[in-house]
Amino acid sequence: MKVKVVSRILEANDRIAEENRKKFKEAGVFVANLMGAPGAGKTTLLEKTIKELKPHLKIGVIEGDIVGSDDAERIGALDIPVVQINTGGACHLDANMINSVLDDLPLKDLDMVIIENVGNLVCPAEFKVGEDIKMMVLSIAEGHDKPLKYPLMFQESSALVLNKIDLLPHMMNVDMNKIRNDSRALNPKLQVFEVSCATGQGIDAWAQWLNGLRSQ
Question: What is the CATH number of the domain that holds 87?
Fold first, then answer.
């Protein structure tokens, strides 16, 4: 049956994810899995975050895309280690994909690895990859209905970054309170950050929070 097949896939994935987690722990690396829909602003947020944290942490990045290497090239321009994974059609990164590139990163020289998952609001939340936390980006332009339409990602994430708040004056139909309330109803422990990668608003508070996790 389909349910049994999916269960076996997830169980196998979780075993490899635990192997990854052990490797990260042995290397002393904190790992964050960054998720969100296409166009939410994941890569731009990642660029801004790296610039904020680079004076304090040694960061490496794993970029996940179906095809292409544009995002990895953008991150590599910041002079940090980056590895590109192309899934060839899969809508998420899984633990085995991550495991296959770990030797391509200088893990013992890093403090943090950020995995930018494939743009999708469903599958990435289902698959552990060995991360310490999952976190997600939601562009306000995506609308206030997303928490209730895609609850698992909000439930699995430790942080929600509401991006593109500079567009609020032009998004009169977006109910920010509904996004906040529905998100926290799904996950009372969810940390919510409101940022604009265009103006820089809120980036410092977000980066400070992420930096604090590494030191815990």
Answer: 3.40.50.300
